[in-house]
Amino acid sequence: MNFARASFTAIFLAVALSCCAIPSRAQGSPELSLAQAVSLAEANSRDLALARIRYTMAQNEARVARSPFLPEVDAGSNLAYSTGFPVALSAQPPSLIQVTYTQVAFDASLWGQYRARQERAKGMEIDIARARDTVIVSTATTYLELAKARHSVELLRNETASAQKIVTYMRERASTGMELPIEVTRSELAAARIEQHIVLLTGRIQILTDELHNLTGLAPEKFEAISTDGLPEIEQPAQDRVQNAVDNNQLIKEMKFERNARQDVLKSARGGYWPTVDLVGQYNLFAKFNNYQQYYSSFQQNNFGIGVLIRIPLFSSKTSSSVALARSQLAETDLTLGKLHDDAEVEAKQGALKVADQDAALKVARLELKLAQESLALIQSRFDQGQATLKDLEQARLDEGEKWLAFLDFDFAHQQAELALMQITGRLSQVFK
To answer: Which of 29, 173, 233, 248 is the most buried (most CB within 10 A)?
Structure first.
């Protein structure tokens, strides 16, 4: 992979220096690198920001679920005027000031629910990594395709000049009867196809520029100068790819957290069989106008009590049903995890094979381009000696241009395959730190 990219750069520089075929589009302007574009897209991504907010929400939901196990103190007044016996209002005796303290000391069901929310919050953190990978792949793919499209347009414009020379040459020969009219039409068709390709690529460049604008938030003119460097490389032994794909698979990670959550849900359901214990305390400041001293042998204004509230479940059909449901949900998660593990291994192997296939195709395209360049040099020498026609020379230049376009297409496909493999094996975060 490194050799392919180095060869691409060497060939590109050789042609640029010798033929000036690919001039700079924005001399003097600082180039926007791929890493810079990815960094800007991460900062600008609404999807990534939304994933972070959802993770924060999940954490806050877990804190809410834990709140019953923390002390809760309420203060207020149950002020009332009474004649006769001081009748309780809202199950509380009339009092000037009332302070209540409550805290769950033991409740297996509530604790299981809290732990399940904690695990699901951790699973939401995986969504942040997934959103980040999506942004990286989308930005890198768009950036690399834009670079390829611009190179292709430059090459096609050079091909247009050669095609027009061939058209002119064929028209001159046809006017003298040395070529059939059909040959003129054939040369005109070849020139028209090149123009059509330029129009299509120009439209594609506009679309890609708008996509990068939306991804990074930069003005479209900032993309007039972008780097021709490809993907940064991080070497990874082939034998580690499958294991890394399994270890770093985001769906597997998320499902593991979901499995932990469902285990806690099962514990929560089983907790319905256990007693619950609450710590309670209360302070009341009574008033004399509520006639307490008339109905009780002794009366004091300040009253305080503390104790425990124990509830023992004797029978609940809902608890056994909840346990059965939680067990089936946990069994479903175990089966899903096994399937995801197998899928991750297959995906990693397929991704590695695709990179190898693209690497081989890129090598063939590079050699075909080299052959076309050597053929062009040979025909140029023959033309200089009067042994080849102008048509032969310009056709050789067209052939070289076509091989260049094919090479750029294969190089882009190769980089796409590398990006996909990086995502599968979890290396995107290492490449784009």
So the answer is: 248
CB 1 within 8 A of CB 418: yes
| Residue 98 covered by a domain | no
**Inside any domain, residue 236:** yes
Spell out a b/e string for 374-401, using b for 16 or more CB atoms within 10 Å of the CB, else e: eebeebeeebeeeebeebebbbbbbbbb
Q: What is the pLDDT of residues 168-223, one digit of tens each?
A: 988 988 888 888 899 889 989 999 999 999 999 999 999 999 999 999 998 888 88
- Please list the residues that pair with 305 across neighbouring strands: 282
Q: Please report whether residue 384 resides in a domain.
A: yes
Whether residue 295 lies inside any domain: the answer is no
| pTM score | 0.80
pLDDT digits (tens, 9 = 90+) for 380-394: 998 888 888 888 888
Q: Which two tokens stand for residue 186?
A: 């054939």
